[in-house]
Write a structure and sequence with these properties.
Number of helices: 12
Number of strands: 15
Largest sheet: 9 strands, mixed
Strand content: 15-25%
Oligomer: single chain
Radius of gyration: 21 Å
Order of helices and strands: EHEHEHEHEHEHEHHHEEEEEEEHHEH
Bound molecules: nicotinamide-adenine-dinucleotide
Length: 415
């Protein structure tokens, strides 16, 4: 599940600059372009696509101000709307996919079909229908030797790499249990404006709608769930859990829950406890712990990696000082590979399966029922709108009181 194999000479690296297109020009997409440029490799940003003109303009300005000599995106290569991504991709060798998660399957499939090298943000989809598309395209990407790096950046963070190497080497014995957390106060809310259509409102306030976001268990907690899968070197066979909305009850809070608490069971019977919540003012915790037959480990994105045996004797303690930024490392490693014309990265399959693990968790908390991996993967509930247009209706709509319906465990059909 770590970045995979190396096949030299997989494609002909261009003699000049590598041409980059940005799809989804928000905070993360703009940041990813910065990180690409910071690698120091010869890269030119040649096209940009966003659903909204203002988001594209803000991103273009920020990138041009910092890296003007690396930007050559004339107005006719700035594509606005739902379909602009296809044209932007045609201009480039390499694409950054950073639109909201619901668009990842269609954007990833198109990038693979066009034969592009890919940096894709997580998560890879918001429902099982999307995951199946990504898994199929991931196979095509491998056969075409297209590098795919996914922004599950803990895979590019030294403490995680060092600890996982030791776990897979058996230093903790068999991993029999663990706990993974993303508990914090939550994220931004974008208020409804009177002139917006329902589609525009949901697109602006995308975090709160499952067809776009997948709920915070998918959008955020996927990072920690993915670490459990990495530690186990497999994916869970079933999930059960509980969740709901304790504090998230406004008209701008869409349909997502504010807490999910689950157990994931793996084929060998080991169990991972997963917990994510958005409660402002409550205690924060974002980390991962695992217990093995010989010892235990504490990990976090704050460069923790503390492994001890059951008597407390150290097995490995990661040095937390002067560690590289994993958001930069993923680009350093990707672009170093691209400029040499090599094939090294095939992150999409694991990223899709870790995303499905999180989606399976949402299915379990929404339905209040135990779900197997196969039930989740084969789910037929497709959240995506039938038509993408500013005057088209998403499948989820507010009631007359302005509040959106949300899942009721025990009643809601999820697959
Ligand atoms: N790896 C990480 O730690 C990390 C951190 C933040 C965000 N992310 C991921 O990055 C992605 C973007 O998040 P963000 O924080 O930048 O959100 P954002 O809202 O700032 O940016 C998303 C951008 O995509 C645009 N967009 C929406 N639909 C589009 C479409 N169909 N085609 C093209 N553009 C479209 C939006 O208008 C917006 O400008 C999400 O998947 C998020 O989960 C990852």
């Amino acid at each position: 599940m770590a970045p995979s194999f190396l096949v030299p000479g997989a494609y002909a690296a261009p003699a000049n600059e590598l041409k980059l297109a940005l799809i989804g020009c928000g905070g993360r997409g703009t940041g990813a372009v910065f990180q690409a440029f910071e690698t120091g490799h010869p890269i030119k940003l040649v096209a940009m696509a966003d659903a909204f003109q203002d988001r594209l303009d803000t991103s273009y300005k920020a990138i041009s101000e910092k890296f003007g000599d690396k930007v050559d995106v004339p107005v006719e290569k700035r594509f606005v709307g739902f379909d602009g991504y296809k044209k932007a991709m045609q201009e480039a060798d390499v694409v950054i996919l950073a639109a909201p998660p619901g668009f990842r399957p269609s954007h990833f499939v198109e990038a693979v079909n066009q034969g592009k090298q890919i940096f894709a943000e997580k998560p890879m989809a918001t429902d099982a229908a999307g995951i199946r598309k990504v898994l199929a395209a991931a196979e095509v990407a491998k056969s075409k030797k297209l590098n795919v790096v996914v922004g599950l950046q803990r895979h590019y963070q030294t403490n995680y790499r060092e600890v996982m190497k030791r776990i897979h080497n058996g230093d903790l014995g068999e991993i029999i249990g663990g706990q993974v957390y993303w508990n914090d106060g939550g994220v931004w809310v974008r208020e409804r404006k009177p002139e917006q259509t329902e589609m525009e409102y949901q697109m602006r306030n995308w975090y709160y709608f499952n067809w776009l976001c997948g709920d915070h268990i998918v959008e955020q907690h996927v990072h920690n769930i993915d670490i459990a899968n990495w530690a186990k070197n497999s994916y869970p066979v079933k999930a059960e859990g509980t969740g709901g909305r304790a504090v998230r009850n406004g008209k701008n809070h869409g349909e997502i829950f504010d807490h999910h608490v689950l157990t994931y069971t793996y084929a060998d019977g080991s169990v991972i406890h997963s917990e994510c919540r958005h409660f402002p003012g409550a205690a924060n915790r974002v980390d991962e712990t695992f217990q093995g037959t010989k010892g235990k480990v504490f990990l976090s994105a704050g460069n923790h990696g503390v492994m001890t045996d059951w008597k407390g004797n150290p097995i490995y303690t990661h040095d937390r000082e002067n560690q590289p930024n994993p958001y930069q490392v993923e680009h350093d490693e990707l672009w170093a590979t691209l400029v040499k014309g090599e094939y090294k990265f095939a992150d999409a399959e694991n990223a899709a399966k870790s995303t499905l693990t999180a989606i399976m968790g949402r299915y379990a908390t929404y339905s209040g029922k135990e779900l197997t991996w196969d039930e989740a993967l084969n789910g037929t509930v497709d959240l995506f709108p039938d038509t993408l247009a500013w005057d088209a209706k998403p499948k989820i709509l507010p009631g007359e009181d302005g509040f959106y319906p949300h899942a009721i465990p025990g009643k809601t059909k999820v697959v």
